[in-house]
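Checklist before submission:
- one chain only
- standard amino acids only
- sequence pasted in full

Submission:
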Amino acid sequence: FQAWRTQRRMNLTYKKGIGDRELSERIFDPHIIAFHNGNWYTKGVDQTNNKIIVLAIFRIQKAQFAPQHFDLDKKILEDTRKNGLFDYPKIENITVRCSAEIAYYLYEQQKAKKLQITANDDGSLTVILPPSPEHEAIRWILGEGGNAEVLEPKWLREKIYKAAKNTVKVHS
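Returned file contents:
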């Protein structure tokens, strides 16, 4: 936090993943600190390769101030505000047919979630989701427990089918 606040470069020892024993040494400029899905992250520039990266703070094994300070890159802040903390590719025009059973809360969330909703004669809704990372779209669709059917894109429909089939297999 202090390095972020004072724009101070850091020497870090970082553990890539849970259970991973491999450690990496990094020289890092922390431009952003953010809480996301229950964990704290820092986004900034890895000076060893000059790439913008996101690090899970709990995986930092050792942190020391480097002697240098850095200039805040406002493009990183603007891009994060616009596209989110992580740079996942987003799927455009995900079209889903939702049952009448969940229509009420989709209407409630329409503005906040930026949903394009068209009512169907049978009470169901055709919903176009905002551009979404694949994993978020899959979780949302599966989380609706059969009340959301992917119409487009076809490849996403197939992924949902395989995931649902695997879920049935695991719970049989």
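Reviewer check: The chain has a mean pLDDT of 93.
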